[in-house]
Amino acid sequence: MINLIESTKDYWRKLDELEAAYKRGDVSVEEVDVRVAQLMDELGHERRVTLSSIRQSVLRLWQDQRETLIGFAFLAILTYAWFIFN
């Protein structure tokens, strides 16, 4: 998750630099379009990697602690029902 946050900060920093270069006239509109697409692809890749990592962690947790999670969910439902009906 930390990598995604850092990648997002880096993405925005690069966009700001690109905007400044465009305003100075160092890059054309076409170059901006190409570079923005590249930056979006980089950030999209990092998001996919992060989501895959989270998914794998959740699946591993489910496999390792299935009974505990089911028991906790059952207790949470019973507690909720007790508060509702009392």
Characterize the structure shown.
- The chain is mainly alpha-helical.
- It has one domain (about 15-85).
- Helices cover about 90% and strands about 0% of the residues.
- The chain is built from three helices and no strands.
- It is elongated and about 70 Å long.
- The protein starts with a helix and ends with a helix.
List the helices and strands and how they pair.
Elements: H1 2-24, H2 29-64, H3 66-85
Helix pairs in contact: 1-2
Transmembrane segments: 68-85
Keywords: Membrane, Transmembrane, Transmembrane helix
List keywords for this structure.
single chain, 86 residues, mainly alpha, transmembrane helix, membrane, transmembrane
β-strand amount: under 5%
Count of alpha/pi helices: 3
Q: Report how far apart the termini are.
A: 41 Å
SSE pattern, N- to C-terminal: HHH
Rounded radius of gyration (Å): 23 Å
Number of strands: 0
Query: Biggest β-sheet, characterized?
Result: none
Structural class: mainly alpha
Which outline best applies?
A: elongated
Roughly what is the average pLDDT, rounded to an integer? 94
Low-confidence stretches: none
The number of distinct structural domains comes to 1
Fraction of residues in helix: over 70%
Describe, in short, the structure shown:
The protein has 86 residues and is mainly α.
